[in-house]
Amino acid sequence: MDKASQTKLEKVTKGATSITLAVFISRILGLVREQVLAYFFGAGKAMDAFVVGYRIPNLLRDLFAEGALAGAFTKVFTATSEREGIKPALFKGAQILSNWLLILLIIVMLGVIFSPEIVALIARAFLEDQEKYYLTVNLTRLMMPFLLFISLSAIFAGLLNSLGVFFWPAFSSGLFNLVSIVIGVVGYYLLVFQGYEPIFAMALGVTIGGLLQALMQYPLLRRRGFRMVFKPDFTLPEFKEVFLLLLPVVFGFSAVQINIFLNTFFATSCGEGAVSWYSYAFRVMYVPLGLFGVGLGQALLPELTRTLTQKNYPQAKELFTRSLVVSLSVSLPSALGLYLLAGPTIELLFERGNFTSLDTYRTAEILKILSIALPFYGISKVAIPLFYAMNSTAIPALGSFISVCANLGIILLTIEKWNILGVAAGITGSIVLQALFLVCMSSHRLSGLTWQKFVRPLFTLFFAGIVLLVVVKSLMLWLESPWALLIVIPSGAFLYILVCRILGPPETYMFYKKLLPFL
Question: Cβ–Cβ contacts within 10 Å for residue 440, how many?
Fold first, then answer.
């Protein structure tokens, strides 16, 4: 690897590490929030209603926050600052943001008005229980403003990432989880004392937490010259550029929303508790997602955009190829660990209060299936920024539609026999196929990847994975208790990293070296 490529990869990895530290804190707080929910509500009617009510604004959040809009905004802002300088880019960024805030406000208002129809569509099985249905509708209305706040937060984060600030934007989601926990717990006891349904306290925590997550980042932007002035201008060329980048991705992300709709629709038909089990399992899987996919993808987009703006295609190919290895170096052991330790992990995290041993078993079985998708999710998160940087957003859109077909096909083939496990299998299969498609298209657009450089890293990761497997299985047989995870996970991780450090190449342990400088 040439020196320039090495420097860029280290810069991306350093940015990803900063994001990872912050996101990891947020994910841990997110787990605590799930533990609070599990303790107070278990996997019953109120929790099912909360999960669906929270998922509805999140259907749009994937499009307007963590998905297309944030990526397109970051790409255009980075390119504008490269061409015109940072001050004009910040001014135009405020104008573009004003446009989208107006659009999002209208969407939120429509969501509040039509909540009954949306719930009936996405969770038709709830209509059989009118109490559950109306509870879900009211929770949806209370949490709908979360979409506006979290979208604003994501755009602020994209601006800060483009300016080289990674830790605090990612850490802001930790504030969201902390606020959700505090308001949820305090509100629970207040509402119970007053004789009201306590799940509304958790919903209020979601909305207020989203608002504070956005407000936390604004002072960081002000110190860098950004001023938020509400002056919509729909004729701005940069807004049109964002919009044109967004259009094909809207179709792609509509496919993602179809996947989420399908999973929710089928999960709500799998009996009481199924939606909750699926939600708890996904929350656990969400922790390692923050360790690689989110951080690496966010850090990679600005750097790829700068490299391609300079028309340095060989360096872009090198950067992308090495980033895939960095992603796999973290996602593969995460997937293996979650699969092997699903049962003890769920038991340790959730089995108390209203969360029973049956809930543990059902949730762990779902988690095993979801864990298989982790490496492929990481690959997708590295590949998608490449297409954004190359203005080829139609390719991720097509990949999303391929995933819909796979998801629906697998669910229809398996749900009768596997019940909620068929829903988990559907989303896992869709992620796998989407990742394989994106890698093939990446290779095509870059006129081939440096595949020969994958041989040594893959051998290293395979051998390190075998060591991890042996260590985890041996220690769990010896120690048995779920509390043994406090020994098993650090021991397995240490030996895995040690093997990567000994066998190399640098990409297999670069992420860990940035995270733990003493390595």
Answer: 12
